[in-house]
Amino acid sequence: WHLVGVSALVQVVAYNRHTYETAAQRLVVTIVPAPGGELPYQGEFLVENRNVEELLPAAARDLFLQATAGVWERDDLRVTNVTSALDRGGRVPLPIEGRKEGVYVTVGSRGGFSPCLASATSPQSRFRCSLGQQPLASCYDTFAPHFSIRWCNLTLLQLWPSPTTPGPAWGPGVLEDGEDFQPPTEVTPQDLLPGYLVTLLVPLAVAVLLCLLLGHLMCCRREGV
């Protein structure tokens, strides 16, 4: 959503993954600005051992924020987005061993990233991930044992405020007294007759030639004539 102060009607359709029963509900969503503005520092974590509905309750998000604070070293963290890994190209897990779909959780903060997170996304860590090894991390993983984080999928993003360009200055729309409207440019008169004749006569001449050719083929090329 990018519209602020606008209400939208959203129809949510959900299904039960065990019985495949569906239910629909309409929600009125009002878009309001985030308290304090948009968070400039955001990190996206891939939680492998959770489904998206398990991280939607407030208690689960608070537990995740406590674990994130241990590696981010900030106390102003806030969850800004929760997305199922299936919506990001993930595969449906096999119904064995209690496997989960996976969840992408985006956490924002007003402070910079900790050295632990910076080292986990460094070029050296990306190179180790390409070799199938664990990335570099200079801190203790406080997500365990509740959340299993795939550190090779960690994404750090720093948002910069977009500069606003001043719009055109609109006048009152009323001419002042004693002034006449002056057009910006004068349009020279044009002779449209040649263009009209070409547009009309050229297709007509082509149609006459086609009729003559077709008549010649049908009347003068018959057998015995």
UniProtKB/TrEMBL annotation:
One of its GO terms (cellular component) is sarcoglycan complex. Signal peptide: none annotated. Residues 39-156 form the Sarcoglycan alpha/epsilon second domain. Keywords: Membrane, Transmembrane, Transmembrane helix. The chain crosses the membrane at residues 193-215. This is SGCA protein. It comes from Podargus strigoides (Tawny frogmouth).
